[in-house]
Amino acid sequence: MANILDYIGWRGDIPFSVSPFNEVDNYIVTKIGTPDLTGVVPSDSAEVSIAQAVKTYYALHGEAGDRLGALASPDITPSFRALPGTVRFAPLRLSNYVRRVIPELTEQFSALTIALPDGSHYISFRGTDDTLVGWKEDFNMSFRCPVPAQELAAAYLWDVAAQHTGALLLCGHSKGGNLAVYAAANCAPAIQSRILAVYNYDGPGFPESVLRQAGYQAICDRVQTFVPQSSVIGMLLGHEERYTVVHSARMGIYQHDLYSWDVENGHFVSLESVNQRSRFIDTTLKAWLASLTPAERERFIDAVFYLLAQTNAETLSELSDKW
Questions:
Q1: pTM for the complete prediction?
Q2: Does 146 sit behind a cis peptide bond, omega within 30 degrees of 0 on the bond before it?
Q3: Strand residues in the chain grouped as ranges (E)
Q4: Is 202 left (phi over 0), alpha (psi -120 to 50) or beta?
Q5: Which residues pair with 94 in a beta bridge?
Q6: Distance (Å, rounded) from C-alpha 243 to C-alpha 265?
Q7: 20-52 pLDDT, tens per residue?
Q8: Are strands 263-264 and 270-271 parallel, antiparallel or unpaired?
Q9: Counting Cβ atoms within 10 Å, is residue 168 exposed (0-12), middle (13-18) or buried (19+)?
Q10: Residue 311 gets which letter from DSSP?
Q11: Is residue 113 within 8 Å of 85, Cβ to Cβ?
């Protein structure tokens, strides 16, 4: 079965005007912001082409630019390198790049805006990076909402909407998917009316208090969530939006890598439901979380990450290299 890299080779010579932007294109575009594009893409509304961005990125980082962290898919940078050579993706223009990692605030956030050929703007929220602080912020979602990245995502959407006119699409993978939904649910009605769709790729949900908010209810029917058949991350916390189950060629937690998802005729290969393993893990995790108060969850997470901090490692890569 074909995957995303196969899709780029197969569909790359067809412009969006002939074959419209689809769910696979969405994921390819949202992963453009996975490499650190600081000094590559402007932090304001000034735009650079995808070709210039790739050229500048590798001029700055060389071969080290292909190393994105212990858990990053090895297929992200081959995809990034390939896009300028395609008819389909070469017209993309990038702007408004932001990256913030502040350990003292338990904050890790990154986002990018991509101008599409039809004049709409695509806002991509990056998921968790290689830093331990990014992973701690993820765990903090189990007892706190909003976390700093969610607040930054909402502020980023307001800023970008003020700088660019026209329709908006929001997207993210994993934590980035959660940020996309949170930002869309926490913006002004005038901005929300410009949002065509929000794409959440295997991102966790929210506590019940968020699901009941008017902003979430107003955007819910425009949120499309995709999860693999053994989804763990994407089934966490609460969801009310519709979701599509996609077949992955890998097993267990490794299905979180969307480059393992099967593609056919410009779409992900869908299934009727998640499998028994996913349902069992989901039920078990939710039962465990329900048995702990928010304060107990916070103490547990603080204790785990305190121990990890004693290694003086700042990233998962450093931790795994010297386990």
A1: 0.93
A2: yes
A3: 48-49, 93-102, 107-115, 121-125, 168-173, 195-201, 223-228, 242-246, 263-264, 267-268, 270-271
A4: left
A5: 48, 114
A6: 20
A7: 989 899 999 999 999 999 999 999 999 999 999
A8: unpaired
A9: buried
A10: T
A11: no
